[in-house]
Design a protein that fits this description.
single chain; alpha+beta; Alpha-D-Glucose-1,6-Bisphosphate, Chain A, domain 4
């Protein structure tokens, strides 16, 4: 993975909101990025089981409304809605934790804007520790991979993708992305010092390997 980290981090517009599901408070992270391709091509890139692994992860299952999908080594869930080529919505399930993901595409001049909305019931202690960057930075990294695939037409090398956050450029990108998620949280009413401290912990989480290297 390559690219100027400042430029890459600046390609995404981030928003944090609060909501409710079934009477329980939720936290909502929204990421928007415009890609230099038409809506049909971007839709195929994010929904085709042949193309998803070229920038994200191998996916299996029944990718139709009501069907279950599984991303290799990651989340699975149920396809709840599919309005081709405008919007799809799925549950995002990891173990007992269930959240909700909606992806919307909108034509934007010669390109297409992707809006990703991730809503979850978040443990207050976990939010205090990491803030929106815990999930937001992960989606930032996925959107970088999607951009590389769209721009080149080629698959992203999985090993390079996994190692990116431990490189100098990758660390700078994560730090910038986490800081901007903190800014979005502050705009939603979060206390500034707490949000920035959470961003620092998020940066450490993504850029330091379990053995302490990175």
């Amino acid at each position: 993975m390559a690219g100027d980290p400042v430029q890459l981090a600046g390609l995404v517009v981030r928003e944090v909101r609060q909501g409710t599901r079934d009477g329980t408070p939720t936290r909502i992270a929204v990421a928007r990025r415009t890609y230099a391709t038409d809506q049909r091509d971007l839709w195929e890139a994010i929904t085709s089981p042949e193309r998803i692994p070229r920038w994200f992860l191998p996916v299996s299952g029944d990718l139709r409304v009501g069907g279950r999908y599984q991303l290799e080594g990651n989340a699975g869930g149920v396809v709840e809605r599919c309005d081709e080529p405008d919007l799809f919505a799925v549950t995002w399930e990891m173990g007992p934790m269930v959240s909700w993901l909606t992806v919307r595409l909108v034509a934007a001049g010669a390109g297409t804007t992707l809006e990703l909305t991730h809503e979850a019931h978040v443990d207050p202690d976990l939010w205090t520790q990491f803030g929106p960057g815990a999930v937001g930075v992960g989606w930032d990294l996925a959107l970088v991979g999607l951009g590389l695939h769209i721009d080149s037409g080629r698959p992203v090398d999985p090993e390079s993708g996994m190692a990116f956050t431990f490189t100098t450029a990758g660390k700078e990108f994560v730090q910038l992305a986490a800081a901007r998620w903190a800014e979005a949280a502050v705009a939603d009413g979060e206390e500034a010092d707490a949000a920035r401290a959470a961003a620092e912990r998020t940066t450490h989480f993504y850029t330091v390997a379990p053995d302490g290297t990175g």
